[in-house]
Amino acid sequence: MSLAEPSLPRRAFTTRLNGFLANGGIVLLLILLIAVVTAIIQPRFLNQQNILNVLRNTAILSIISMGQMLVMIVGGFDLSVGVIVAFASIETALVMSALLQWMPEMQFLAVVLAVAIALASGAAIGMVNGVLVARLSLSPFMVTLAMSSVIAGATFYVTKGIPVYGMPEFFTHGVGRSFLLGVPTVVVVGLLVVLTTIAVQRLTRFGRHVYAVGSNPVASRQSGIPVDAVLVATYAISGLTAAITGILLTARIGSGQSTLGGTFVLESIAAAVVGGVSLLGGSGRAERVLLGALFLSLVSNSMNLMRIDSKFQTLVLGAVLLAALCFELLLRGRRKYG
Amino acid sequence: MAEAVITRQGLRWTHIDFLQRILPTLLMFAGFAFYEPAVASTSNLWNIALQTSYLALFTLGQVVVLLTAGLDLSIGLTVSYASVVSALAMMQFSDEPGLAVLVFIATSVGVGVLIGGFNGFFVAVLDINPFVVTLASFNILLALSSTITDGFPVSGFPPLLGSALVNSAVAGIPIPIVIIGVLFAATAVLLNRSVFGRSLYLIGSNRRMAFAAGINVRLHLLGAYILCSSLAAVGAALLTARAGSGEPNIGGSLALETIAAAVIGGARLRGGEGGVLSALAGALFVTVLSNGMNLARIDGYVQQLCIGAIIVLSLIADRLSHRTSRTS
Amino acid sequence: MTHASKLLELSRISKRYGPLLALDDVDFDVMPGEVHVLFGENGAGKSTMINVITGNVGPDGGSYRLLGNEVRTMTPQEARRRGIAAVFQEFSLVPDLTVLENLFLGRERRIAGLLKRAEMRREADAFIAKLGFNLPLDRLVVDLPRAQRQLLEVAKALFEEARILILDEPTASLTDTDADRLFDLLFEMKRDGVGIVYVSHRMREIRLLADRVTVLRGGRKVATVAGADVSEAQLVEMMVGRPVGDLYPAIAHKPGKPLLEIEKLSSVDGRVRDVSLAVREGEIVGLAGLVGCGKGEIGRLVFGLDPISGGSVRVKGKPVARFSPRALLRRGVCYFPADRATDGLAPNRPIRENASAAALDLKRFGGGGWLRRRAENSKVREVFERLGVRPLRLEQTVLQFSGGNRQKVMLARGLMREIQIFLFDEPTVGIDVGAKAEIYQLMRDLAEGGAAILLISSELPEILNLSHRIYVMHEGEIVTHLEGEQRTEAQVLSGFFGKNRTKAAA
């Protein structure tokens, strides 16, 4: 205690500034800045259609980023989220169209079953990742990279890269393009996922254990936390959120596609890093990752409106990621244990 | 048992270890040859040798950073970008074929040095997680190499390039294999006989220890990333010359393949272990596997699936064997 | 028969880590309402024993009985559920969570799956007030000073309502007032029939608390004796395995000119403030203090491992301009870090490479270009022979050696080149007595050969028996400087708690 005293007066200001910047203030400022600048240059930005587009993209990205964030809090990465999106997509489409041929009049049941199966397999893939990471202490990076290869191979083998059609309109229009209370259904689902994650992080024991395991696994084990189970659960959730993303995208596009999801690995990690999730594990908040997702969606929307080549946009994404990391580095200095 | 373990550990990275590591490859080769005799034909053997040497060169680059406890996800796009840029640069000198070939090679290596310096700056100097840094540069390079050419190959090379880097031979050995062999030997000497190489192993094993021992950690790490990307760039030049055009998609899935090969060959993600022989053994394994599967007419997507599964299995096997040797 | 009355009974417990036999056929038990002290050097097996009891480590052999019932496999969760609580030396705290969250870690109060935050806060407030500890509930643990982390670790264990309480050096960084408060609480628990396993080196605490003392040495149990009728000398002799006098060599004191002079040195993180000290040619200077008082930090600052905010250092009379390990090695300064695993050794590399790592810039070993393997091999072999590294297999990795040999491998770094100033930070932690004696011999040889040695240590006997002069640190400052007859345990101890300030004259 007494050690910190001499520098207290100076710390007050910097702490407050640091606190604001560190807690997402800078992302908020950047979001406002981009919105204002884009609106001035391209008034189309403020069209209802465009705003809804940004919200849809934000919702989709934030769903998959929730899972990625949890995995990053426990000190890992999930590189398999991209292929799980594709896997869920073709699985949903295949199961749905097969069920419909079999029982054409039971549309609702077919949709529910297909969605449930896709969600379950997303979670199952995540669980396999989690078991390999937790029980065999393999590198999360290698495990999820190899898993990506396996799943992508399987996905493409089944479809030969051809889109899968045959889903009922009830699904494609009902989920993909409809509105609930004036808000796109996708956005509603996104909000639900984010709110649930916030609640889990703040209100539940599991949420707290995720932080504990990421921050200090040894101490967590000593404190009686089932560390392995927590790890497996976070990877399973990551698979689950990736599957949700895949299902929503499938509904929106109207077909199951094995090429979906390619950019989600980078985007979800970028959203998490922009949202202040530390690569060292132990910290990260859902509401800030939502901001990160909004930021990335805005940047890409703004570039689209300014007719910047979409291929070139990944460059910006990479640069944003590096900039966010450098920023984290500036804040990291004061946070060291022991 | 204990004695055997000690001996094996004591002779790490010697030929015995190498033989152990290529034994599964030989068995696999025998299996494929039994199923499809064309696998063992002379022309296919040359084919395997050539493919192995390209992959081994890229894997060697990957091993250099892996043994510092880092990694390079951008290696494939380094190859693509170097291919496109060096092809474009060469086209500026199409009147003078000799100069054009020199420009081609110099540009390719120069691009490698720059990309390695970029990655190394963030990883070594700023101390940022190499995985995320190279993921970012992967995407930056992806954007650059596809926008520079709008995704189309750059073609119209002078014939001299092909005769210089593809079709000539030294003592009956194709020139690419010769060049790659020389690079392997040079890297082996560098890793095993130089202070630079020694420093990389120590940094990979324990970065803080290396610093406390007075080793210039940042400089050496930067060097490792530059070396990695430069080796990749030389490989890019050889591949580009063979393809006859600058290809924005040439690097494809090299990140996965090289990391898989390195790990199968005995390098460890946590650093401090691995060498040129692990690059060679791993590359041979991956090449024989995909060559065999191709000739056995196994679907390309199934091949991808198999590679992923084999990586996981080799990781598990490695972990389990370490567990038993620690407790026995 | 007696089983029923024993809370805990471990028999014939063995545990091996690679080449190291951490526990060898050890019996240990705890009765209700007693304090059973575990005594031994660092590395004698005390921590492994605690880890076995708390289920963090599964033993390779032996039986485990709790309240008379055989336990097959113990896990941390199971241990806690059955009423075993522990204060760990390395703290079981999670840095990114708050004090309150840490207190309830692993036993969060819930209703319908949701945390009962208000209730937990009330409960914690009441509990902390009852303990009388000063703990801010909403601070992140990462921002707490070490003393408060220690209090929190203790509070966390006491919170359990345990039947068996294990404390591993719980007072290592507590003030006297807080320690006394803890002892009061322990007496209360004893009266309630709680069995207490207590690990400590401090005679005062053993005198005050111990009903029985079990002495461990090199993973084996030496004896279990009644706390009342054992003298300190007896305990230490059992711990060391030989008369204390034999362990510490006599070291001639012929001080020459000052080789290392530290002037008003402060660290950026505030853990060291305005420290001045000097070490002369041919002498060993001890730097003592509680864990976390900043004494190890001084070595790290001088060697350039942590940033300096002010002050100066002179080596052989010339000021140091650039604080980096490389620059200091070249000036003849070598620091041996306390934590071999994090700063000291490259675990999966051969010991040969570990030994020569700090000498790679020398011409004779390569000078930055190509390695001279033959010169390296012969010099490393010579140094290892001098240090007594066994077995002398240069190509084995560090992981294949025991603690004592690992320490020697690290020390070899300082003998590979011309070094006159040695900074030893906790040089004998976790190593066996034989290796310890050898390292003390080495320090004597170096000092008598004209080197300047700064011995930074938490082991009081080491400081008292080897040092020609002693500085004592308290909360980042040097509070006492002791020479000649002043070098007594009582004098050093009072310095530990910031009393008895002599104006430190360097």
Question: What is the element layout, followed by pairings?
Answer:
The complex is a heterotrimer of chains A (338), B (328) and C (506).
Chain A (H helix, E strand, L loop, with lengths): L7 H34 L6 H26 L7 H22 L4 H29 L4 H20 L9 H8 L2 E2 L2 E2 H19 L1 H11 L1 H6 L4 H27 L10 H11 L11 H20 L4 H23 L6
Antiparallel strand pairs in A: 1-2
Chain B lengths: L1 H9 L4 H21 L6 H25 L8 H17 L5 H29 L4 H19 L5 E2 L3 H9 L1 E2 L2 E2 H19 L1 H11 L1 H6 L4 H27 L1 E2 L7 H12 L10 H20 L4 H28 L1
Antiparallel strand pairs in B: 1-4, 2-3
Helix pairs in contact in B: 2-13, 3-8, 3-11, 3-12, 3-13, 4-5, 4-6, 4-11, 5-6, 5-7, 5-11, 8-9, 9-11, 12-13, 12-14
Chain C lengths: L7 E10 L2 E11 L4 E5 L6 H8 L7 E6 L2 E2 L5 H6 L2 E4 L11 H5 L6 E2 L2 E2 L1 H15 L14 H13 L5 E5 L7 H16 L3 E5 L3 H7 L2 E6 L2 E7 L5 H9 L3 H4 L10 E10 L7 E6 L2 E7 L5 H8 L5 E8 L2 E2 L5 H6 L2 E4 L3 H5 L6 H6 L16 H15 L15 H13 L5 E5 L7 H16 L3 E5 L3 H7 L2 E6 L2 E7 L5 H8 L10
Can you put this structure into words, describing what you see?
The complex is a heterotrimer of chains A (338), B (328) and C (506). Chain A has 338 residues and is mainly alpha-helical. Chain A contains 13 helices and 2 strands; from the N terminus they run H-H-H-H-H-H-E-E-H-H-H-H-H-H-H. A two-stranded antiparallel sheet of chain A has the order 1-2. In chain A, helix 2 packs parallel to helix 7. The radius of gyration of chain A is 21 Å and the shape is globular. Chain B has 328 residues and is an all-alpha fold. Helix content of chain B is 77%, strand content 2%. Chain B contains 14 helices and 4 strands. Chain B has helices spanning 2-10, 15-35, 42-66, 75-91, 97-125, 130-148, 159-167, 175-193, 195-205, 207-212, 217-243, 254-265, 276-295, 300-327; strands spanning 154-155, 169-170, 173-174, 245-246. The radius of gyration of chain B is 20 Å and the shape is globular. With 506 residues, chain C is of the alpha/beta class. Chain C has 18 helices and 22 strands. In chain C, the strands form 5 sheets. Chain C has a 6-stranded mixed beta sheet with strand order 6-9-10-3-11-12, sandwiched between helices. In chain C, strands 18-19-20-15-21-22 form a 6-stranded mixed beta sheet, with helices on both faces. The longest helix of chain C has 16 residues, at 176-191. Chain C is globular. The interface between A and B is large, with 42 and 43 residues.
